[in-house]
Amino acid sequence: EAKSAGRSQVRYFNNAMRSKLKHQADIENDLQHGILNDEFELFYQPIFTLNQPKVVSFEALVRWHHPKNGLVAPDQFIPIAESTGQIIELDRHILTLAAKQLSNWRQQGVSDIKMTVNVSSRHFASLEFIEYIHALYDEYKLPSGSLCLEITESGLIENLNLATKIINGITPLGVQLYLDDFGTGYSALGYLHQLPIHVLKIDKSFVEQLSTKDSPLIDAILSLAKSLQLKVVAEGIETPKQWARLKRKGCQLGQGYLVSRPMPSQKALAFLHA
Ligand code: C2E
Ligand code: MG
Ligand code: MG
Ligand code: MG
């Protein structure tokens, strides 16, 4: 009996594996089609100062209008695009959408807004990315520093010298580098002062802990950032209590549902004017 139970578990596992692989293959095909078919839309979430709430920039977060599955969240396809390598093309497509939006907002009189775009650390393994970002700034006549990048530490560390070279190649455009999800990776702190980054984003899992008590980890991140002269954005602020604690600790910038969820471009513009 134990044996047959084992067998049916194996069969169950195989079926689950097969449908997972099928799902991935479908997404891979659909992604290709989706880029050509312009199915991706950027939503924008404000990043604001904690002292007196003022929007300083928007983070662009991609959504996929899938012809069959409806609106799909990035967690459902970014990891797959990473594993197939399509992330390079997808991120470039997204960067173009972001640049177009910035230039569109400028035409509507919003001149001083900045945007951060999430990109895969894979871009930091090839010098081509420098040229790509320069061309983008050029084509859309982006003001210095208006488009910035968010990256996670994984993938950067293996290639620290090359990553540093690439970041140094785009910082003359005013492009600032935000280190996303900080504290959740396998960070050896040693690389932090070697990488030419500008901003740390405290992961929302740490901010969540602030709902009940002060967090020694957040204190440590803030003091680390201070000594390295980095700015800090706390992500995932959902309650006034979290906001107050972060502000009291000297965190300058925040982001989260308390102020706004990510929203389509029209709503983001209205939010800015409100
Ligand atoms: P991330 O860059 O760390 O983005 C923060 C995520 O937290 C976003 O989820 C955002 O909607 C969500 N969030 C913001 N405020 C709150 C809050 O107060 N509470 C909670 N619970 N969540 C909050 P989203 O949009 O689903 O994006 C998930 C991840 O997908 C992003 O994490 C980023 O790593 C990736 N991603 C999103 N857009 C892109 C993109 O255009 N390119 C690439 N390569 N990755 C992207
Ligand atoms: Mg991000
Ligand atoms: Mg994050
Ligand atoms: Mg994240």
From TrEMBL:
Residues 24-274 form the EAL domain. This is EAL domain-containing protein. The chain holds residues 510 to 783 of 783 of the full protein. It comes from Pseudoalteromonas obscura.
